[in-house]
UniProtKB/TrEMBL annotation:
Specifically binds 5-hydroxymethylcytosine (5hmC), suggesting that it acts as a specific reader of 5hmC. Keywords: Repeat, WD repeat. This is WD repeat-containing protein 76. It comes from Daphoenositta chrysoptera (varied sittella). Belongs to the WD repeat DDB2/WDR76 family. GO terms for biological process: regulation of DNA damage checkpoint. The gene is Wdr76. Residues 43-53 have a biased composition (Basic residues). GO terms for molecular function: DNA binding. The keyword Repeat applies. Residues 42-62 are annotated as: Disordered.
């Protein structure tokens, strides 16, 4: 009715729409929807909230190797008071290639730095008189040792961390000492300056400085060896040149010639390498496997420069550099009898007829290098209740006095702290000690080649000059 004008299909469609509307209205869906919303809201108020996840920065930092970060372990008690431990980001990697000779504190004390480098250059031009050089008799030598004293003004913290190596300039007019520490720093100290501005720190290396020498033919050159590189600090050009670089960790080096153009370099993994400064590039001339598991020190014979001494795990052997090859090297002779790791082995300074070795069992051994005969083995004085120094022997623990063929020096853990001088017969000739100013172990020592000057370095970067 009222829709007669529509077609039969349209009327059918309209009827379906009307019936469907009535059907959905009878279901009362809007009331159901409102009820469901009410129930959902009510239940949500009783839901326990889940804790928020921690932010990334709140999580515990992933553990990283303290050795790779160059950080000392904090849970190991040390005898010495260690300096603050800088993070790896504070000392970034030193770039490859030449570096300007600019100290860490250049911005503050540039004039004092120029004075220090100028002194080094000036004293390097003076030639020492070798006419009177020789081996004094023991009595006169003992008297000279007794005359050496340690004063307060001759103590200085020259580097920031443990002293790993030292060198003393051969000048007879000025005392100039170089020290390398475990962070790759090289400190230069003009002891004769007697002022606070007499020492400066340079950073030519990324890792600890294991060995240092002033060039025997040109003391304006200071060569320093780190784990990954051998550099030459040339004060005449104010630059640290890079001589050799390797992924094999270097341990020590010594010059094969008086002109310092070639050197034998030891590797921590046991190999040795021959380096020639005159050739281009930064690789060695030869890398030789000498059969060692570890090579700590290498030392060239003072007279017959073709022979060198290598000290390793329990090995101390003499090799001829002329016959070195990549593999299959045999020693000319072996100095046997060591039961633990050997820290160092050195020829006597004038004739090379003696060899002194230091072993981790606290024993010092003297060998006759001509017929390879053990002359003497005796126990070092040490404090057995504190063994961290002895459990990690360092290169340079026993060094010959370059002025005396038959006497050597070694740092002692005896109380009071001291540096002892022994004759090659085992007789104790003198003990350098000072209860007021020397209270630490000087494991690294160096002696002036012509003057009565001894420098001892400790684990906090402090130098003591007798």
């Amino acid at each position: 009715d009222g829709y007669s004008h529509l077609s039969a299909y349209e009327r059918k469609r309209l009827k379906n729409i009307t019936e469907n509307a009535k059907f959905f209205a009878a279901l009362k869906l809007h009331e159901v929807s409102a009820r469901l919303n009410q129930i959902a809201t009510k239940r949500q108020s009783h839901v326990t909230k889940r804790p928020k996840p921690k932010k990334v920065e709140d999580e515990t930092t992933r553990r990283r190797s303290m050795r790779l970060l160059r950080v000392e372990p904090l849970d190991i008690p040390l005898l010495e008071t260690m300096p603050s431990r800088p993070g790896a980001e504070e000392y970034p990697q030193v770039p490859v290639g030449p570096l300007p000779m600019v100290p860490e504190d250049q911005a503050e004390d540039s004039k004092w730095t120029e004075a220090l480098l100028g002194t080094w250059m000036r004293i390097s031009e003076l030639k020492a008189d070798d006419a009177d050089r020789g081996t004094p008799d023991i009595k006169r030598y003992q008297e000279s040792l007794s005359s050496m004293v340690l004063r307060e003004e001759n103590i200085r913290k020259v580097v920031k961390a443990r002293v790993c190596s030292m060198a003393i300039h051969p000048s007879e007019s000025t005392i100039l000492v170089a020290a390398g520490d475990k962070w790759g720093h090289v400190g230069l100290w003009n002891v004769s300056c007697r002022s606070e501005e007499g020492a400066h720190i340079f950073i030519p290396h990324s890792f600890q400085v294991n060995c240092m020498h002033f060039s025997p033919c040109n003391p304006a050159h200071l060569l320093s060896l780190s784990n990954d590189t051998l550099r030459c600090g040339d004060v005449t050009r104010a630059v640290f040149d890079e001589i050799c670089r390797s992924e094999e960790h270097f341990s020590s080096f010594d010059f094969l010639e008086e002109n310092a153009s070639t050197a034998i370099v030891g590797h921590w993994d046991g190999d040795v390498a021959v380096v020639d400064r005159r050739t281009p590039g930064m690789s060695s001339e030869l890398s030789a496997d000498i059969g060692f598991r570890r090579t700590r020190t290498v030392h060239v014979h003072p007279v017959n420069k073709q022979y060198f001494l290598a000290a390793g795990s329990v090995d101390v052997c003499v090799f001829d550099v002329r016959y070195l090859k990549a593999k299959g090297n045999k020693p000319l002779s072996s100095l046997t009898g060591h039961t633990k790791s050997v820290a160092s082995a050195y020829f006597s300074p004038v004739t090379g007829s003696r060899v002194v070795t230091v072993c981790a069992d606290d024993k010092l051994s003297i060998f006759n290098s001509k017929n390879i005969q053990v002359l003497l083995v005796f126990k070092k004085q040490s404090n057995k209740s504190k063994t961290h120094e002895n459990s990690q022997p360092k290169p340079g623990w026993a060094i010959w006095d370059p002025k005396q063929e038959h006497c050597f020096l070694v740092g002692s853990m005896a109380q009071p702290r001291q540096i002892q001088v022994f004759q090659d017969t085992g007789k104790l000739l003198h003990s350098f000690c000072n209860m007021d100013y020397l209270g630490s172990v000087c494991s690294i020592n160096v002696v002036h080649p012509s003057q009565n000057i001894l420098v001892g370095g400790n684990s906090s970067g402090r130098l003591h000059v007798f």
